[in-house]
Amino acid sequence: RWQKIFTFSLWSKVAVFWNKMFLTIIVLLIVLFLDAIREVKKYSAVHVIEKAANINTNTFDHIQMKLFRSQRNLYLSGFSLFLWLVLRRTVTLLTQLAKGMASHAALETQVNDATEAAKKYMAENERLQEALSEKGSSKTKESAEATNEKLKNEIEHLKVELQKTSNALQKANNEVSAVKKQSEGLRREYDHLMKEYEQLQVS
């Protein structure tokens, strides 16, 4: 069902716009993060100077408010930038996992087809050998031997193809397992970061 949904032509048109929007948001978050760092440094220095000088209380409170806002903006922009990158990576891993699962299914189908064809040719080979043993004619023997040799060659070829397909299937299984492990690790890291972010919001 999801494959049918994601094969709509609408998503291919939105993909270009989405990439541009992602880069725009990343640039915007980086600018906000750098600006927040600048504001924190600025008001931290002013905060120390004003505290040492023991000037007007209202001015000192105003500087503390500015410092608090700049620190808040720093945390929000930093976490937003990081979580946005995590989201992008998660989407990439899910896409790779979906492609790996699709190729895995295709390789399994190929392996099953090759196995069935090999069994069919082996059954035909056995029937020809039985027919050869029943008939004593030399011409029939020669023709059956030629056919038998041809079938043996075809069986060997199918065995080679089956081995190649099995190797490809094993490789695809390894890739899918690696992507699953990486996706699981990323999910645990994301949950851990969300807990830290909630603790930071509470504090």
UniProtKB/TrEMBL annotation:
The chain crosses the membrane at residues 15-34, 74-91. Residues 1-106 form the BAP29/BAP31 transmembrane domain. The keyword Cell membrane does not apply. Keywords: Apoptosis, Coiled coil, Endoplasmic reticulum, ER-Golgi transport, Membrane, Protein transport, Transmembrane, Transmembrane helix, Transport. It is a multi-pass membrane protein. InterPro entries: BAP29/BAP31, BAP29/BAP31_N, Bap31/Bap29_C. It is found in: Endoplasmic reticulum membrane. Residues 153-201 form the Bap31/Bap29 cytoplasmic coiled-coil domain. One of its GO terms (cellular component) is endoplasmic reticulum membrane. Pfam families: Bap31 (PF05529), Bap31_Bap29_C (PF18035). Belongs to the BCAP29/BCAP31 family. This is Endoplasmic reticulum transmembrane protein. It comes from Pterocles burchelli.
